Structures are given as structure tokens and as C-alpha cells.
Amino acid sequence: MGEVSRFWRESVHRYRLVGNECGNCKRVYFPPRDVCPICHRESIGKMKEVSLSGNGEIESFTVLHEVPPSFTRQRPYIMAIIKLDEGPSLTGQIVDCDPGEVEIGKRVQAVFRRIAQEGESGIIEYGYKFALA
Fold first, then answer.
1. Beta bridge mates, 77
2. For the chain, which end, N or C, has fewer CB atoms within 10 Å of the first or last residue's CB respectively?
């Protein structure tokens, strides 16, 4: 168990939004990839790690009213597709607002939040979610 928790604590991607930029075409990807799907061979060895700002806008969203038991304190649960300012789109939870405030095109910013906990006194996992900017 200790090695698993250490892996997540030490993972650079766990606590930051980190993507890759193709050194050939300059497209940014999240999650990181080894090869650009556009440039293919020309991108091998040219993918550079980049920190993403976490700023973007809502492209689409849904409000979930029926949620798993572990999410009951987060009801309703808002999931969205976020288009980051750097280019990639990703799926994330919208927090700290009412569902009526969420609209396509609204600006959001990544925030660091608790994701899960293993039992009453277990390991707490943290990660990114999004809040209205």
C-alpha cells in the first residue's frame, strides 16, 4: 500500500495539469502523449512537457442528480467538457456553484480539491476540478 500511495504523491501529473507540446506543429495535448497524432514520425523525441494554466471555457456539460453513494455529498454533480486556453479539451467536474450558474461558454479555472478517501482514516486523494472564473 505504501508504494502505491508514494507513486501517486510523487506523480507530477497528479497535482498539476501537465500536457505535451509537439515541437514540430506546436499543438498541445492533454493527457501527455509520446507521439503527436498529426505529425507522427516527425514528432518522435520532440514532445515537450508543458504546464497548463487550467483556465478555459465550458464546451458542454451535464448535471447528474442520481450519483453513486460515495458522491452523495456532491449532489447534484456537474460534469463538463472544458476547452483549455492552450487548446486541449478535457472532462472535469464543476464545483462551488449551483447548476443554474453553469452555461456553455462560461470561463472556468482549475482548482485543487479532494477526490476520494480510502475509508475513515485512509489515504486522501487530491486532484483538479473546475470552478467558475
1. 64
2. N
φ, ψ dihedrals at 74, nearest 5°: -115, 25
Is the peptide bond between 99 and the residue preceding it cis, with omega within 30 degrees of 0?
no
Side chain identity at residue 49, one-letter code: E
Q: What is the pLDDT of residues 109-131, one digit of tens each?
A: 999 887 777 777 777 777 889 99
pTM of the shown model? 0.81
Look at domain 54-132 and name its CATH class: mainly beta
User: How far apart are the two ends of the chain, measured CA to CA in Å?
Assistant: 37
For residue 50, give the C-alpha cell: 508543458
Q: What are phi and psi of 27, to 5 degrees?
A: -70, 145
Q: What are phi and psi of 9, to 5 degrees?
A: -65, -35
